[in-house]
Write a structure and sequence with these properties.
Elements lengths: L2 H24 L2 H22 L5 H20 L4 H13 L12 H10 L6 H12 L4 H8 L3 H18 L8 H23 L10 H17 L4 H14 L2 H4 L19 H16 L6 H14 L8 H14 L3 H15 L1 H13 L8 H12 L3 H14 L3 H13 L2
Length: 411
């Protein structure tokens, strides 16, 4: 492994704890992120010349804290905070020791700050990937197919917003934590969703983005082991990702659920997902929105085939999900389940009501489902119209190709 590869590996694994520790020392989240980036830049210069230090993460934290002292000195000098930091550095006598197995409250605080409700959803996602996930602005930009400058602007605005709002660096109280946990889980879910079904571009799945969401969920589940909905989200991510190996063919083209080779599904991920779902259910509070989606994913994971899936249970789970977290997408998915359990004629009115309401007007999902139902009902001309619209609206090149082939098959 080269020095540059070592730096990248250490940063991806330890950046959240480094930024968190610096934020705790300085009391300034925005400054802490800047200090961590400066330490990273110094490593890029020093490690190739002097070699990777014995304790890489401790080296980065030590440099960051020294830069903090310099920053406070420049601000005007030996105030109380600078004096405390300087004394700590003198007492340390050099490089800070670092326990790689420790997962502390700094990371938890960092996640809650990055996903603070004062920030827009886009800002939360960018900031979380940057300071908790350790991704660079370029990596985030590539993942979401936006310019790097846009990502950098979002991160800069987010840090300014947090500073202006006076958001403290601390783990929220239990009461406030419960209220804000939904925001944290939503950010992880958004990151995973974009990774598992890319909304645009040439790849159906962005494995690195989906994998980062899984990693964040696993870290958070260890930090907050008594939150059932967190385990529900982790279960959903694991069970969904278990199907990744079979979702694309050798050429990268999507493989529909009914055509997937279920022997290629990741059985280890299925076991992890089912275990996480069991933990969510064991709390006895009833499953939340993520837990219900995980239960639906479990129905698919344990079924030998599409035909042998317990579609009646899937319909009931979607009905429960629609009552708890109503959305047009949930209703559309329920329609698909109804079509499998009761036939396309029973499902079409659900889809027609969504179309009449103008729901999902800009999404290819509704005309795709409606077109497929019409095909099964023998209404070919209407199906052709729907699938043509689906092709026009689909932003992902791989999915668009599949829809095009369905359209061509109608003759």
């Amino acid at each position: 492994m080269t020095e540059r590869e070592a730096i990248a590996a250490v940063w991806r694994i330890e950046s959240a704890r480094i930024v968190g520790a610096l934020a705790r020392y300085t009391g300034d989240f925005a400054l802490a992120e800047d200090l961590a980036q400066e330490a990273l830049a110094e490593a890029l210069v020093t490690w190739p010349r002097e070699g990777v230090p014995r304790n890489p993460a401790g080296w980065l934290l030590t440099v960051g804290r020294r830069r903090a002292v310099d920053a406070f000195r420049r601000r005007s000098a030996l105030d109380d905070r600078y004096a405390v930091l300087a004394n700590e550095l003198r007492e340390d006598g050099g490089e800070i020791e670092w326990d790689p197995d420790q997962i502390d409250d700094d990371v938890l605080a960092l996640m809650f700050i990055s996903c603070h409700p004062v920030l827009s959803r886009e800002a939360r996602v960018a900031l979380t990937l940057r300071v908790v996930g350790g991704l660079t602005s370029d990596e985030i930009a590539r993942a979401f197919l936006v310019p790097t400058a846009t990502v950098q602007a979002r991160i800069t605005r987010a840090k300014k917003t947090l500073g202006a709002a006076g958001v403290p660096f601390e783990v929220p109280s239990p009461e406030e934590r419960a209220a804000r946990l939904g925001s944290v889980l939503n950010v992880i879910y958004v990151i995973f969703t974009e990774g598992s079904s890319a909304s645009s571009g040439g790849d159906l799945i962005r494995f690195d983005l989906a994998g980062e969401a899984q990693r964040l969920a696993r870290v958070l589940s260890r930090l907050m082991p008594d939150e059932p909905e967190l385990h529900g989200l982790l279960a959903l991510l694991e069970l969904t990702a278990a199907r990744f190996p079979a979702r694309t063919g050798p050429d990268g083209e999507p493989v529909l659920l009914e055509d997937q080779d279920r022997r290629r599904w990741d059985r280890s991920a299925i076991r992890r997902g089912r275990a996480a779902l069991a933990r969510a259910e064991a709390a006895g509070r009833g499953l939340g929105a993520y837990g219900l989606q995980a239960a639906i994913a479990e129905c698919h994971a344990v079924a030998p085939s599409v035909a042998e899936t317990n579609w009646d249970r899937v319909v009931l789970l979607y009905e429960a999900l629609g009552g708890l977290a109503p959305s047009p997408v949930v209703d559309l998915n329920r329609a698909v389940a109804v079509s499998m359990a009761q036939g396309p004629a029973a499902a079409l009115p659900i889809v027609d009501s969504l179309a009449a309401a103008g729901a999902l007007d800009k999404s290819h999902l509704l005309p795709t489902v409606r077109g497929e139902l019409l095909v099964r009902l023998g209404r070919t001309e209407e199906a052709r119209t729907e699938l043509t619209r689906a092709v026009e609206l689909c932003g992902n090149e791989r999915e668009r190709a599949v829809l095009g082939r369905k359209l061509d098959a109608l003759g």
